[in-house]
Amino acid sequence: MKKALITGITGQDGAYLAEFLLKKGYEVHGVKRRSSSFNTDRIDHLYHDPHEAGVKLHLHYGDLSDSTNLLRIIQETQPDEIYNLGAQSHVKVSFDTPEYTANADGIGVLRILEAIRILGLANKTRIYQASTSELYGLVQEVPQSEKTPFYPRSPYAVAKMYGYWIIVNYREAYGMYACNGILFNHESPVRGETFVTRKITRAVSKIALGLQNVLYLGNLSAQRDWGHAKDYVAAMWMMLQQDVPEDFVIATGVTTTVREFVKLAFGELGIEVEFSGKNENEKGVIIDIDEQRIMELGLNADALRFGQTVVKVDPKYYRPTEVELLIGDPSKAKAKLGWVPQYDLQALVTEMVLADLNLAKKDEHLKQGGFKTLNYFE
Ligand code: NDP
Ligand code: GDR
């Protein structure tokens, strides 16, 4: 039985990857951070009481900023594969916490590589590093491939650039099986609520039920290549099953603006939104409502009217330096790994909006029962 160690197992990708590897028969170990409240929501469905026999998922307290702890966990688990997904992964937040981001996202990678070397596991343990399309930053060429030069535009991307190169260096210097997946944005119903897609699908569902009035966003013109996390974790595993370690771009090859994503999300609920105005004054207004869809989905028709403003711009969500356009070229992964994504953007939006509508309906029931619901719109 193969053993895998996942840092960041409590995050979006960690949860999908753990499920994927357990289905493949792996024994899965995950590093979770100590928190004052439970932070394992995304993997609770995979978790069994460790006192039971035959448990395949094991969690260890740890942090990428603590070498001693990484050394101990790697020594105890002796993994065949390490997936380093742990990171302070929010680009905007990295401008607020640049030093911490550099420590966890940059030096954290080095700590793992050194632990493997010190423990004499360089010939046994294969390492996947969660690199990112944010490395491309300021557009040099499109579509972006493994050969496109990097120009990082945030403390997050600069930290990830260190992670990228230290992986390449240890591969070349010590012959380690270490590779970078340069993954473009990937989303899902368990995407963190402050990333733009999930922020949109949550808000759209709440607006359709009359639980929220307006969705405030930043740069509506940013373009992203959005895929589904489920497809992307399969690619991570494929990268570690090759004869020779290499770096791969994982993307859909299709790019979409934030504005268009908003329209698709409202459209899923039968609400047509049109944008007008410029920059800070741009807004999204309801121009059509599909009454039948509203009925089918049990939405609140009274809360929706023509001409209603449902999206506004708040410059506080702008970034000091922005990445305007990402579009990836996944040809290498398709040719060498045989990677074929199952989801397109429409299927992703449908899944996310319907999942968030269910959550919003729970909120609606709680509200009707006189209970307070969380209304944090960041
Ligand atoms: P999430 O933000 O959902 O998850 C991040 C995970 O890292 C969480 O489990 C978090 O723990 C953990 N973590 C944060 N800081 C530390 C630390 N100091 N030590 C140990 N663990 C830590 O990210 P995703 O799942 O979306 O992304 C996974 C990885 O892939 C990240 O490295 C991200 O930068 C990278 N990436 C993501 C892309 C995407 O579009 N999703 C695209 C390209 C790269 P906790 O739950 O306690 O906060
Ligand atoms: P990104 O994802 O920065 O690409 O990083 P995010 O969803 O945060 O932003 C995408 C684009 O949307 C614009 N935007 C907003 N973003 C947020 N979060 N909130 C808003 O209100 C808002 N309005 C507009 C942003 O300016 C940006 O252009 C994600 C993370 O998962 C990284 O860890 C990962 O490496 C990259 O994807 C690939």
TrEMBL record:
Cofactor(s) demanded: NADP(+)
Catalytic activity entry: GDP-alpha-D-mannose = GDP-4-dehydro-alpha-D-rhamnose + H2O
Sequence ranges assigned to domain NAD(P)-binding in this UniProt record: 5-352
A Gene Ontology molecular function term of the record: NADP+ binding
EC numbers for this chain: 4.2.1.47
Pfam families found in the cross-reference section: GDP_Man_Dehyd
CDD domains in the record: GDP_MD_SDR_e
Family matches, as InterPro entries: GDP_Man_deHydtase, NAD(P)-bd_dom, NAD(P)-bd_dom_sf
Keywords recorded for this protein, A-Z: Lyase, NADP
One GO term of the biological process aspect: 'de novo' GDP-L-fucose biosynthetic process
Family that this chain belongs to: Belongs to the NAD(P)-dependent epimerase/dehydratase family. GDP-mannose 4,6-dehydratase subfamily.
HAMAP family assigned to the protein according to its UniProt record, in alphabetical order: GDP_Man_dehydratase (MF_00955)
Function in brief: Catalyzes the conversion of GDP-D-mannose to GDP-4-dehydro-6-deoxy-D-mannose.
The protein's name in its UniProt record: GDP-mannose 4,6-dehydratase
Annotated gene: gmd
